[in-house]
Design brief:
Chain A has 112 residues and is an all-beta fold. Chain A has strands spanning 4-7, 10-14, 19-25, 32-37, 43-49, 55-58, 61-65, 71-76, 85-91, 101-102, 106-111. In chain A, strands 2, 4, 5, 9, 10 and 11 form a 6-stranded mixed β-sheet that branches. In chain A, strands 1-3-8-7-6 form a 5-stranded antiparallel β-sheet, with no helix packed on it. Chain B is an all-beta fold and 114 residues long. Chain B has strands at 5-7, 10-13, 19-24, 31-37, 44-50, 53-56, 65-68, 75-79, 88-95, 104-105, 109-113. Classes of the chains: A mainly beta (112), B mainly beta (114). The A-B interface holds A 4, 31, 33, 35, 40-45, 48, 50, 88, 90, 92, 96-105 and B 4, 31, 33, 40-45, 48, 55-56, 91, 93, 95, 97-108, 110.
Chain lengths: 112, 114
């Protein structure tokens, strides 16, 4: 079965600093989804990547899928307290279904 | 547009008791998912419905968990009898399309089994 490893597990950064979260798959990714979760709340969709080498941005968050489609990175520029939360990557099994497998998440704290 | 609604938000029960969670997806979304998220882990799919038919329930512990989606709209997830390890957040999600598509999540139902 497909497994997703996220690193780091947790991250504390000072406000204004840049940071990167990685998501590595044991198998080829057909689709890679990034979500954000705040404590006690549901998951909020950030971005979806499908093509090798693809890069998408939303506000100060940029996500990339590498050429081999087995790793994705999420980069936040000039972090703000509003970026704090748990970032989860989810993988498409490639069988025509939306993501069924999630990583364990990266907990991000942003301190002033 | 109203989001995915779930209830109750919190539930505390003793082991061997039963519990039911309700989900109302976004209007018009044909696909509905129930995920289980144990503290410190990512969500794990329990069951996926397409309209009122089951697409995937391979990870649903069928000896104690059941789910239904009558009339292809709202859904109920039941646990009977509950075990300590069922303590988790139960997330409901819906999507307009099966693939590819953005999943819209509810706020979840947090279950504590004592």
């Amino acid at each position: 079965s497909q497994e997703l490893e996220q690193s780091p597990q947790s991250l504390i950064v000072q406000e204004g600093k840049n940071l990167t979260i990685n998501c590595t798959s044991s198998k080829t990714l057909y689709g890679l989804y990034w979500y954000k979760q705040k404590y006690g709340e549901g998951l909020i969709f950030l971005m979806m990547l499908q093509k090798g080498g693809e890069e998408k941005s939303h506000e100060k968050i940029t996500a990339k899928l590498d050429e081999k489609k087995q790793q994705s990175s999420l980069h936040i520029t000039a972090s703000q307290p509003s970026h704090a939360g748990i970032y989860l990557c989810g993988a498409d099994k490639g069988s025509g279904n939306t993501p069924l497998v999630f990583g364990k998440g990266t907990r991000l704290s942003v301190i002033a | 547009e109203a989001g995915v609604a779930q209830s109750p938000r919190y539930k505390i029960i003793e082991k061997r008791q039963s519990v039911a969670f309700w989900c109302n997806p976004i209007s018009g979304h044909a696909t509905l998912y129930w995920y289980q998220q144990i503290l410190g882990q990512g969500p794990k799919l329990l069951i996926q419905f397409q309209n009122n038919g089951v697409v995937d329930d391979s990870q649903l512990p069928k000896d104690r968990f059941s789910a239904e989606r009558l009339k292809g709209v709202d859904s109920t997830l039941k646990i009977q009898p509950a075990k300590l390890e069922d303590s988790a957040v139960y997330l409901c999600a819906s999507s307009l399309e099966v693939f590819p598509g953005e999943l819209f999540f509810g706020e979840g139902s947090r279950l504590t089994v004592l």
